[in-house]
Write a structure and sequence with these properties.
The complex is a heterodimer of chains A (113) and B (117). Helices cover 0% and strands 50% of the residues of chain A. Chain A contains no helices and 11 strands. Chain A is mainly β. Chain B is an all-beta fold. Chain B has strands at 3-5, 10-14, 19-21, 24-26, 33-39, 46-52, 60-61, 64-69, 74-79, 88-97, 103-107, 111-116. Chain B is globular, with a radius of gyration of 14 Å. The mean pLDDT of chain B is 93. The chains are: A mainly beta (113), B mainly beta (117).
Amino acid sequence: NAGVTQTPKFRILKIGQSMTLQCAQDMNHNYMYWYRQDPGMGLKLIYYSVGAGITDKGEVPNGYNVSRSTTEDFPLRLELAAPSQTSVYFCASRTDRVSEKLLFGSGTQLSVL
Amino acid sequence: AQKITQTQPGMFVQEKEAVTLDCTYDTSDPSYGLFWYKQPSSGEMIFLIYQGSYDQQNATEGRYSLNFQKARKSANLVISASQLGDSAMYFCAMRVVISGGYNKLIFGAGTRLAVHP
């Protein structure tokens, strides 16, 4: 089925550990985004990409890195996890059309203890 | 600064009644888009409705309509004939242009809607 696939769904990390959140879409979308949602809050943009090889920072990029080697994949890397990174992470994608809605993945719930 | 404001942290409505969720925005760009998303307790983000800044008519999608008042910079979501399944968190979002002509969505803090039988 076409859509945005995120893995894992849940993860618990210890402080200082690293991990990669995976995101893949099979709709040939150029735009891809990573958002985080803290409890009871809206979504904040971490990083975005407008195509393979092109990425840029969003509002809250500190502590994260991304890469976009293919159109399909947009992994988010957490280095040296901190409790402040406990959040739900959403990956999203869309076409280039300005009116096009974002399609979201199902989210990754991450706890850093 | 570009910003989305949702001033109602929580709302409740009786089943079958209509409810309006408020959203105001701030941007100096003449071209922008406004979106509403629903997030049920299961956590996924579900697109509801879109309004472009140049659209002359208010957007409608089934029981959802967007009351777009450009001069007041408001984009309120109206849900008619509320159903129990409408209980969820609702987010207003705005597409804004960023460097290089690309764009992104910024989100409000959300409004939690509870529909009572």
